[in-house]
Amino acid sequence: MKGNQCLTKKQLEEFREILEQKKRELIEDIKRGILEEANAEREVGDLVDMSTEEILRTFEMRIRDREAKYLKKIEKALQKIEEGTYGICEECGKCISYERLKLRPVAELCINCKLKQEKLERKFGEE
Ligand SMILES: [Zn+2]
Questions:
Q1: Mean pLDDT across the stretch 16-26?
Q2: CATH number, domain 9-126
């Protein structure tokens, strides 16, 4: 894990724990959803021994889009923590505030860029 100019090592460690926890919860949700849907016993038996990657690959079509997207965001954020780029805005390169990350640990943009993006989306949405 590399440190960076936006967050202290302690804060990065904190976010890593939060993200790992969210990831675990989300995977549990996904598994439960699949298990509820799974009719074949064989399918259920296999699922227990499967890794996250295998589950996602096998059941990609059945995992809700929203969950899959969120999981990918979490994975990306965890990767950024390792690379030392977590908490840095992807748009302008400035620091995303600690408070914002606490509310939304998968945030990729600082609040200014996020608002700009939303304004843009609204604009194009109206046209
Ligand atoms: Zn920004």
A1: 95
A2: 1.20.120.910
Going by pLDDT thresholds of 50, 70 and 90, the confidence category of residue 84 is very high
Q: How far is the CA of 103 from the centre of ligand 1 (A)?
A: 17
Compute CA 53 distance to the chain's CA centroid, rounded to the nearest angstrom: 15
Which sequence spans correspond to the domains of the chain?
Answer: 9-126
Other Cβ atoms within 10 Å of 32 Cβ, number: 10
CA–centroid distance, 95 to ligand 1, in Å, is 7
Between the alpha carbon of residue 118 and those of residues 7, 46, 62, 78, 122, the distances in Å are 26, 42, 29, 25, 6
Residue 57 has a pLDDT of 76
96 Cα: distance to centroid of ligand 1 (angstroms)? 7
Task: Work out the percent of the chain whose per-residue pLDDT is above 90.
Answer: 56
| Overall average pLDDT of the 48-56 stretch | 73
Residues with CB under 5 A from ligand 1 (ion): 89, 91-92, 110, 113
- Mean pLDDT over 40-59 rounds to 67
Q: How far is the CA of 3 from the centre of ligand 1 (A)?
A: 19
